[in-house]
Design brief:
The chain has a single domain (6-234), classed as Spore Coat Polysaccharide Biosynthesis Protein SpsA, Chain A (Alpha-Beta Complex). The protein is 35% helix and 21% strand. It has helices spanning 16-28, 53-75, 94-105, 162-172, 176-182, 191-194, 221-234, and strands at residues 6-11, 33-36, 80-85, 88-90, 114-120, 134-137, 144-146, 153-161, 202-206, 210-212. The longest helix has 23 residues, at 53-75.
């Protein structure tokens, strides 16, 4: 296998149990992962803003992702960054699949800015699907790159190119969040409204390589159903750990 072309990052905010679980998973599959402790409400980018606690949580998550992307862009020489959250199971053959994904598709050649490796999808896909059309197969593996629509959600795990990292940082990292307070027409300062949607040069890997672990209850009932149903549909102990 040639030189690793990506660096992996995991956002784990104030939860040692989740972090420990993720450390063990990455160690087991032989992936070097940099963990980031996240962003508290006392962070100067959030503190003293006239926003509700829910919005603070969303901002905290978004800044957590952006801080990881900043770290990748400025402190890594890798071509691609992989970013994830800390409540997921990961495919046991992750390293091999991602290696073939990069070698076979070459993100820059195909002009992909982002490829989703984990996401929320409450149903299984048939070969043909109007909104999630197949782009190509990943090597000789049972995985496919597909288009995805703007009503698909989740930042469980994704891979971005270095050029797209700069685009995201230039647009969202410094003043965008505060602008949304006064300009309600702006897209929400939220990871899966922005990071996964700020380009048409995008794809997802199906079936997903990362699946939510199904252990946590979300306050919004409809969100909980979607998250848990995705886990029930896609988690397989034979393939994920």
């Amino acid at each position: 296998m040639s030189k690793i072309k990506y660096q992996t990052y995991c956002l784990s905010f104030n939860n040692n149990e989740r972090k420990k679980d993720m450390e063990e998973r990455f160690k087991t599959i032989g992936i070097d992962c940099i963990f980031y402790e996240g962003v508290s409400f006392e962070d100067l980018r959030i503190k003293d803003r006239e926003i509700c606690d829910h919005t603070k949580k969303v901002w905290s998550c978004m800044y957590g992702h952006l801080d990881m992307i900043y770290n990748f862009y400025h402190n890594s020489d890798k071509e691609y960054g992989i970013f994830c959250e800390d409540d997921i199971y990961i495919h046991k053959d992750f390293a091999n699949i991602v290696y073939k994904l990069i070698e076979d598709t070459n993100i820059n050649t195909n002009q992909f800015d982002i490829i989703l490796l984990g996401y929320l999808l409450g149903y299984k896909l048939e070969i043909n699907h109007a909104q999630l059309e197949i782009i190509q197969q990943v090597s000789d593996l049972p995985f496919f790159l597909r288009n995805y629509p703007s009503d698909l959600w989740g930042t469980q795990m994704y891979m971005i190119s270095r050029s797209f990292a700069k685009i995201l940082l230039d647009k969202y990292y410094h003043t965008y969040a505060d602008q949304t307070i006064v300009n309600k027409s702006l897209i929400h300062f939220s990871a899966d409204w922005t990071i996964t949607k700020n380009t048409t040069k995008r794809a997802l890997v199906y079936p997903p390589l990362a699946v939510e672990n199904g252990k946590y209850v979300h306050q919004d009932h409809s969100q909980h159903i979607l998250h848990y149903h995705t886990y029930l549909l896609y988690y397989d102990p034979n393939y994920h750990l």
